[in-house]
C-alpha cells in the first residue's frame, strides 16, 4: 500500500495515496515515478505517512530513493555468495557484508605500531579507544566507564544480578584491580606469608584465575 501524502492546499485535509500493488516492484515504480518525480524536481522531501523526518529535505534525489526503502521494505541488493541469502536495502551495506565472506579488512588502525585491521570504519573507530584511553561508555549506576559498548553491557549484568541489593558490587572483570593485602599476625616476612597464603588459596579454589599467585610475587 502506498502511504505517500501529496501536497494539497492548506484548506484541504491531507490524505495518503492508498493505492495497492501486487508486488514490491510495482509499488517502488509507482512511488518513484508518480510521487518522487523526475530530475526536474528540486524538492527532495519524503511525504510518506508518519515519516519521522517531518519534511526535512534530502540534498539529492538518490538519497530520497534510498530513504523510501525504510517505508516500503524494499531490499534490492542480495548477497551473491551461494547459501548466504541475506539481502540489503543499500549497496553500501552489501559491500560491507561481502567482506565477511572475503575476509577483506581495508581499514587499518591509524595508531603507529598497531597492525589491527577492520572490515568497516565504525569498528576501527571503536578500536581506537584502546589507544587513546578514551572511555566514552559510562555506567549511569556506578560511574564506571569503558572503551567499548560491549564491555559496558557485560558490566550492567552485575547490577541486574544485584537487583535491589545495596551491598557493594562484585568485580565485573573488566577493569584492572589491586589484589587485597594479606596481613600476617606473626613475625614472619610479610611477603613470604602473603605468597604462602595466596598459594594455598589458589590450590583450594579452582575458580580463581591461573595467574592469581603472580599478584603476590
What does this entry show, briefly?
The protein is mainly alpha-helical and 217 residues long. It has 6 helices and 6 strands. It has helices at residues 24-36, 61-72, 91-102, 121-132, 149-162, 190-204; strands spanning 77-78, 87-88, 107-108, 117-118, 137-138, 145-146.
How would you sum up this structure, described in words?
Residues 178-204 have a biased composition (Polar residues). It is found in: Nucleus. The chain is mainly alpha-helical. Among the domains are: 24-72, no CATH class; 77-129, 2-Layer Sandwich (Double Stranded RNA Binding Domain); 134-160, Double Stranded RNA Binding Domain (2-Layer Sandwich). The chain is extended, with a radius of gyration of 29 Å. The strands form 3 sheets. Strands 1-2 form a two-stranded antiparallel sheet. The protein contains 6 helices and 6 strands, in the order H-H-E-E-H-E-E-H-E-E-H-H. The model is unreliable at 166-217 (pLDDT under 50).
Number of helices, where a helix is a run of at least 4 consecutive DSSP H or I residues: 6
- In total, the number of strands is 6
Biggest sheet: strand arrangement:
1-2
Principal-axis shape:
extended
Report the mean per-residue pLDDT as an integer. 75
Strand portion: 5-15%
- Portion of residues in helices? 25-40%
Enter the CATH topology name of one domain: Double Stranded RNA Binding Domain
The N- to C-terminal Cα distance equals: 72 Å
Protein name: Zinc finger protein of the cerebellum 3
GO molecular function: DNA-binding transcription factor activity, RNA polymerase II-specific; RNA polymerase II cis-regulatory region sequence-specific DNA binding; zinc ion binding
Subcellular location: Nucleus
Keywords: DNA-binding, Metal-binding, Nucleus, Repeat, Zinc, Zinc-finger
Amino acid at each position: 500500500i502506498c502511504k505517500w501524502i501529496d501536497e494539497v492546499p492548506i484548506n484541504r485535509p491531507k490524505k495518503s495515496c492508498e493505492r495497492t500493488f501486487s508486488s514490491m516492484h510495482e509499488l517502488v515504480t509507482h512511488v518513484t515515478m508518480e510521487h518522487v518525480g523526475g530530475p526536474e524536481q528540486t524538492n527532495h522531501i519524503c511525504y510518506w505517512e508518519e515519516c519521522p523526518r517531518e519534511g526535512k529535505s534530502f540534498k539529492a534525489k538518490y538519497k530520497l530513493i534510498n530513504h523510501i526503502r525504510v517505508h516500503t521494505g524494499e531490499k534490492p541488493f542480495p548477497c551473491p555468495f551461494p547459501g548466504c541469502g541475506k539481502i540489503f536495502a543499500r549497496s553500501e551495506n552489501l559491500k560491507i557484508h561481502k567482506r565477511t565472506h572475503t575476509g577483506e579488512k581495508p581499514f587499518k588502525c591509524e595508531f603507529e605500531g598497531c597492525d589491527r585491521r577492520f572490515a568497516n570504519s565504525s569498528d576501527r573507530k571503536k578500536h581506537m579507544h584502546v589507544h587513546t584511553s578514551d572511555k566514552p561508555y559510562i555506567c549511569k549506576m556506578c560511574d564506571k566507564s569503558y572503551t567499548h559498548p560491549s564491555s559496558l553491557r557485560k558490566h550492567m549484568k552485575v547490577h541486574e544480578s544485584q537487583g535491589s541489593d545495596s551491598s557493594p558490587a562484585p568485580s565485573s572483570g573488566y577493569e584492572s584491580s589491586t589484589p587485597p593485602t594479606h596481613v600476617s599476625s606473626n613475625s614472619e616476612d610479610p611477603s613470604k606469608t602473603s605468597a604462602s597464603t595466596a598459594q594455598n588459596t589458589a590450590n583450594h579454589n579452582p575458580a580463581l584465575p591461573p595467574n592469581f599467585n603472580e599478584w603476590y610475587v
